[in-house]
Amino acid sequence: MNSSVSIRDLTLNFGAVSVLKDLNLEINDGEFLVLLGSSGCGKSTLLNCIAGLLDASEGQIFIKGKNVTWEEPKDRGIGMVFQSYALYPQMSVEKNLSFGLQVAKVPQQEIDKRVARAAEILQIQPLLKRKPAELSGGQRQRVAIGRALVRDVDVFLFDEPLSNLDAKLRSELRVEIKRLHQSLNNTMIYVTHDQIEALTLADRIAIMKSGIIQQLADPTTIYNKPRNLFVAGFIGSPSMNFLRGEIAKQGDQTFFTANGVNFSLAHYDTPEVLQAGRKVVLGVRPEHVKVNENLGAEVHDATVDIEEPMGADNLLWLKHAGHTMSVRINGARRFSPGTALKLGFDMSLASIFDAETELRL
């Protein structure tokens, strides 16, 4: 597949502080890539380097094969949507959409055509004569997306565009952005700290920490086979349960053991790395723990500490083998604090990490 955006050995320093470190990233043509991480991880900084709003200290940036490392933002073939809508308050929606094209001296007929197309795609035709103050937050963000859309560019950059909206609007606009990508098939690079946005929108997710990409993969791989402990703990709500222990052998059987409790590792797909005595961390997602039914051969005892009903789901916080762990079950099943339970673990879906390097085994 052709590369739409290519980032090579990119480093950005603010004084003595290194914000991006020898970063390499190939973004495919027509791909929806999400840069995901907590505040300060470098995701918005990377987006601003691609946009030309920040100058790289070292490295190169290519868009559609053209070296744009020192090009002005307007010459990079990008459209950018910001967290703050950045609309002109004195102008109508129609003027906000067309203003940049008029400055670029695009013929009026072409401007009218592009504005009409963007308004149709984003379903904002009835709003064209209104001013930003007369619009809701969701409508303003649609206009901001439309302003990028009319530029008719190859690459769209989104910098946390939904973070100022309430939960219901975020959910609605997520669907619209996904639909927009499916209809346009342009390359989109999207920055967020919201893992739900990342998992639902992305073709691939780049999870960042301290200016370094920790894992770059499709959402299913990121969720089910996290590369290290950081990724495993960052993705998932509530996050993966972690138990610290070691590998034990008994005959031809291999176990994870912690606080006197054993877990069979018969399903593990790389048994050669499971040497007896190796210190490891076992990771199990809350939904991969069974409670009181279909438990399998291994049964574990636990006690309910806290119950969190969430409608379709019910979250239980349990005391188990000296650990506190979370379990996700059907919302119709209720257990009061102090209830004794039997647990079964789907070890075929578990993850094992080296305790020292924190890398997946």
UniProtKB/TrEMBL annotation:
Its main location: membrane. The keyword Transport applies. Residues 5-235 form the ABC transporter domain. One of its GO terms (biological process) is carbohydrate transport. Keywords: ATP-binding, Cell inner membrane, Cell membrane, Membrane, Nucleotide-binding, Transport. InterPro entries: AAA+_ATPase, ABC_transporter-like_ATP-bd, ABC_transporter-like_CS, ABC_transpr_MalK-like, ABC_transpr_MalK/UgpC-like, Mo/tungstate-bd_C_term_dom, NA-bd_OB-fold, OB_MalK-like. It is found in: Cell inner membrane. GO terms for molecular function: ABC-type transporter activity; ATP binding; ATP hydrolysis activity. Belongs to the ABC transporter superfamily. This is Glycerol-3-phosphate transporter subunit ATP-binding component of ABC superfamily.
